[in-house]
Amino acid sequence: MVHWSKKASAVLAISILTAGSSLLAAPNAHAAIETNQVMNDITWDNTAAPAAPDQVAARAGSNQVVLTWAPVQNASSYEVRRYDVMNNTYNSVQNNTYAMLSTGITDAMFTDTTVMNGKVYGYVVNAVMANGQKTQMSMPAIAAPTEQSANVKQSLVLQSRINGSGSNTINPTINILNTGTQDVNLSDIRVRYYFTGGTGLSAKNVSLNNVPFNSRNVEAHIVNMQQPQSGADSYVELLFNAEAGVIPAGGESGNMTFTVQRTSGSVSSDYSYGSDTAMADNAKIVVYYQGGPVWGNDPGVKENDPMN
């Protein structure tokens, strides 16, 4: 890994501006901002520390940013720090200071719900190893939260079907429909499938197949719920990167299949299970757009109508 000494944040400014000189003036262009990663301009005195987490990505929603990164082997937890990005610079980098956002994170994923729409934020992540040693900080990732579009809130529909599988294997095919009049970035969408028997599982237990825009453009995470509900102690969350493209107005994402291998649980007892063998609406698989739910009901919601 290359070690960078403290310096002016010109590199950050160049990286952002190459995507368009109006990005920071118009934060609603967050789709281009949030996928940019810039060189690390934070000094670490201990350059012999273990390598930082990589593949750090920040996805903006409405008053929300979702961070993901590649798991670090032998890490016991992670720490996330945040910067305000102002005038194309991290406003705290001059003094090499930062705001600790969260510690003790055990999954390679964190949701920041303390952000404000219209501002641009930068994040760095480090791991804490089992022996207590901290890694170097990651490359920064940036995101600009924006308000949800009213049209999109009412235009996304998720359909699913079951596929032949054993009772322990979750193996649905899903498709996201865009019934609206404007294109929707897949990078603004998250999908949650709720199930039981997820304790001890990780992204390694999830495989993706037949993804029309390539499975490398989809990230799968398994999250254990703090408050398990009937038919759900965990959920699979699917996230899409910028290269996944868009769902055109009046179009669809195309059918994609994911598989979760587990040692306990029953498919038909899972909250998000749908018994249809042909593609049909499934309101128990929840779709989020820019951080907010726009289709389906999570296990704590009793109504059958999609959230709005």
From TrEMBL:
Where in the numbering of this chain does the CBM3 domain appear?
150-300
Q: Which PROSITE patterns match?
A: CBM3 (PS51172)
A Pfam family of this chain = CBM_3
Q: Which domain of life is it from?
A: Bacteria
- Alphabetically ordered keywords of this record: Signal
Q: SUPFAM superfamilies per the record? A: Carbohydrate-binding domain, Fibronectin type III
Segment forming the signal sequence: 1-31
Protein name from the UniProt record: CBM3 domain-containing protein
Q: Which organism is it from?
A: Paenibacillus hunanensis
